[in-house]
Amino acid sequence: MSTGTSRSFHFKLTLAASSKITRLIAGTPSAPAWHTPPEAPDPLHGISSSLQTSVCGAAGRGKRWEYDMYAVIKTGGKQYRVAADDVLKVEKLDGNPGAAVQFGEVLMLGGTGSVTVGKPTVSGASVTAEILEQGRGPKLINFKKRRRKNSRRKKGHRQDLTTVRIMEVLGAGQKASKELTGVGVKARRFRGSGRRFELLKSAEGGQADDLSLIGGVGPKFAEELHKAGIFHLWQIAALTKQNVEALEAKGQFSHRIQRDEWVMQAQELLDGKPPRAKIDRDHAATSA
Fold first, then answer.
1. Which of 84, 78, 246 is nearest to 164 (CA)?
2. From CA 13, how far away is CA 158, in angstroms rounded?
3. CA–CA separation, 263 and 235 (whole Å)
4. Which CA distances in Å does 122 have to 53, 66, 119, 162?
5. Angle (nearest 5°) at CA 87 between 48 and 105
6. What is the pLDDT of residues 217-270, one digit of tens each?
7. Buried b (16+ CB within 10 A) or exposed e, 118-151
8. What does residue 160 show for φ and ψ, rounded to 5 degrees?
9. What are the phi and psi torsion angles at 79 (to 5°)?
10. What is the pLDDT of residues 166-222, one digit of tens each?
11. Going by fewer Cβ within 10 Å, which terminus of the chain is more open, N or C?
12. Predicted model pTM
């Protein structure tokens, strides 16, 4: 190496060393070009990706749209982004149509340009809603076949769902101010005449229905039904599962209500269909 080249190389090393010392004194240590600073913790950690898109917008997670007030709630093992006056279907909730319900598991609050993320929930926050309807979802078919085994299994399922309307999104310390409106509430329709099941002290109009038209109901069971306060077909058609269990728990009907499908038979008779058994059909024709 020549003398000129040696001096030039020594000058570059000296310049680099002095620059590094200057940065150290200034409190900004040098870092390699390949070094990247650690990322900040994700404020949306724990929120599902679909809700992140809904909250932050399709343009990306770096941009947040401003809403009046919204929340991310969790109910039935699922997350929903809700705001006032939203109508949505959730997993079944206890309560009759028109009743109020409160969601206390709020994962995030947003609106007016600010976002509060819970750890895991936002303390003191809640969402109030009104139950509009109790219903069920579409029928799902589960079919399984084992080939060359003559084996087939088919099952149907309809999930119980509750339709609610969001009334208010409340932060910590806020109290509900809106009252139930009743708009859009669909009252539960019972089988039979549409009336809720009830026991009667005597037959309406002084005349009881011929309950023996139901297959499996003979004179003995008809007498027991009268003693229990059941005189009409609409009462049997309006029986719920809880009502049937309460009647059969007394040991009077030997689980015949469910086994012989009394409820379904009563509904068929109310719909104008003939009795299932031939002897009952002949009896009905003779009575007419």
1. 84
2. 78
3. 9
4. 20, 19, 7, 24
5. 45
6. 888 888 889 988 999 998 888 888 888 888 888 777 878 888 888 888 888 888
7. beebbeebbbbbbbbbbbeeeeeeeeeeeeeeee
8. -75, 130
9. -110, 140
10. 999 998 888 888 888 887 787 666 566 667 888 899 898 888 998 988 988 888 888
11. C
12. 0.51
Look up residue 64 and give its two tokens.
Answer: 């947040």
DSSP states of 135-170 as a string?
EE---EEEEEEETTTTEEEEEEE--EEEEEEEEEEE
Dist CA 269 CA 276 (whole Å):
9
Distance of alpha carbon 287 from alpha carbon 249, whole angstroms: 34
- Please return the burial class of 86, using the count of CB atoms within 10 Å of its CB with bins 0-12, 13-18 and 19+: middle
CA–CA distance, 271 with 265 (Å, rounded to integer):
10
Q: What is the DSSP letter of 185?
A: -
Residue 211's nearest CA partner among 138, 269, 277 is 269
